[in-house]
TrEMBL record:
Domain Sugar phosphate transporter: 18-312
TM regions (residue ranges): 14-34, 46-67, 115-133, 139-156, 163-182, 202-218, 239-258, 270-288, 300-320
InterPro entries the UniProt entry points to: Sugar_P_trans_dom, TPT_transporter
GO cellular component: membrane
Protein's UniProt name: Sugar phosphate transporter domain-containing protein
Organismal lineage: Eukaryota, Metazoa, Chordata, Craniata, Vertebrata
Record keyword Transmembrane helix present: yes
Gene this protein is translated from: slc35c2
Length: 364
């Protein structure tokens, strides 16, 4: 009976994984096209980002309340001193990453955005080495060369290239490297108790709002206060339309974070990494088909070279995390085994009687 149950259990897990990946794609690809669509008529990306942060915070608060009622256990709430000293750097980096990314949609196409954002792997690698989260490895040089050369080929002779938008999203990728490295450090500190991303999002949003608000005032404050789409609207229906469309974006942003958590907690971070590679392919194909993005043969070749570099990086992390050598260094977790996230599960692991409600944590 055990042997018969194992293939069935494996099939159920496979179907569940496919479902979670598709669920993640809906929010991840959806918010990319939503941002580009909204920026065509609504030229206030920082205001949009601030509103999204408020919506994410509201949904995180409601989710935490529901989880507390369901489990009967209080959720973690950090004291102010720890909150400001430990969470603030991550919040500021996250706010600038998201803000600049959304801002870039005023200038660049989805394909250029997607490709340039792929360079975030380079910066994540760099800061992981700086913070000693990863061990130096000669293969990482090849990863860097492939991604960098692919990005160069993609932007070479691009008919839809915009330097201002390209610099914005490249800077966002650089800050994103700091963001995800600090997020990994934050979530691996067991004494903080922020291993659950819902708690992390709850604590990050207020500081992200405060960090981005001065930039909003400097660049969009006066324009937003006088726009006919919001505060000087002539008809109520136009105001309601703007508020509804902005709220949909906030729901997509929260759904993206939640779907990433579901995918990693029910599968592994490797699954999320591989799904991210195919997501970029789908995004580019959809952008060319529906958004009128133009790509030459050299651009497609550059995209393929970049993806090969990302795939090599994922493969290397898989190889070394299977015990073939040190590459990823885990932070001290004070004897908390729940923070260990296996990147690969063997077939035997699928046959074991595991508890599906056990949460594995995101280690980015």
């Amino acid at each position: 009976l055990g042997r018969m149950a194992c293939p069935t259990q494996f099939l159920c897990r496979a179907l569940r994984t496919v479902g979670l990946v598709l669920f993640y794609y809906v929010f991840s690809i959806g918010i990319t096209f939503y941002n580009k669509w909204l920026m065509r008529d609504f030229h206030f990306p920082l205001f949009m980002t601030l509103l999204h942060l408020v919506i994410i915070f509201s949904f995180s608060t409601l989710t935490r309340f529901a989880m507390q009622c369901w489990t009967g256990k209080p959720r973690v709430t950090l004291p102010w001193k720890v909150y400001l000293s430990k969470v603030a750097p991550t919040a500021l980096a996250t706010a600038l990453d998201i803000g600049l990314s959304n801002w870039s949609f005023l200038f660049i196409t989805i394909s250029l955005y997607t490709m340039t954002k792929s360079s975030a792997v380079l910066f994540i690698l760099f800061f992981s080495l700086v913070f000693k989260l990863e061990e130096p490895n000669p293969f990482l040089i090849l990863v860097v060369l492939l991604i960098a050369s692919g990005l160069f080929m993609f932007t070479l002779k691009s008919t839809q290239f915009n330097l201002e938008g390209f610099i914005m999203v490249l800077l966002a990728s650089f800050i994103g490297g700091i963001r995800w490295t600090l997020t990994q450090v934050l979530m691996q500190k067991a004494e903080l108790g922020l291993q659950n991303p819902i708690d992390t999002m709850y604590h990050l949003q207020p500081l992200m709002f405060l960090g981005l608000f001065p930039l909003f005032l400097l660049n969009e404050g006066l324009s937003v206060s006088t726009t006919e789409k919001l505060f000087r609207v002539s008809e109520l229906s136009h105001l309601l339309y703007s508020l509804v469309t902005l709220t949909v974006g906030g729901m997509l942003a929260f759904g993206l974070g939640f779907s990433e958590f579901l995918l990693v907690s029910r599968t592994s971070s490797l699954t999320l990494s591989i799904a991210g590679i195919f997501k970029e392919v789908c995004t580019l194909l959809l952008a060319v088909e529906f958004m009128g993005d133009k790509m030459s043969t050299v651009n497609w070749l550059g995209f393929a070279v970049c993806l090969s570099g990302i795939s090599l990086h994922v493969g290397l992390k898989t190889y070394y995390n299977k015990g073939n050598g040190p590459m990823v260094r885990q932070l001290p977790v004070r004897d908390n085994p729940d923070l260990e996230l296996p990147l690969l599960q063997t077939k035997e692991d699928y046959c074991e009687d595991t508890n599906d409600e056990e949460e594995q944590e995101i280690l980015y």
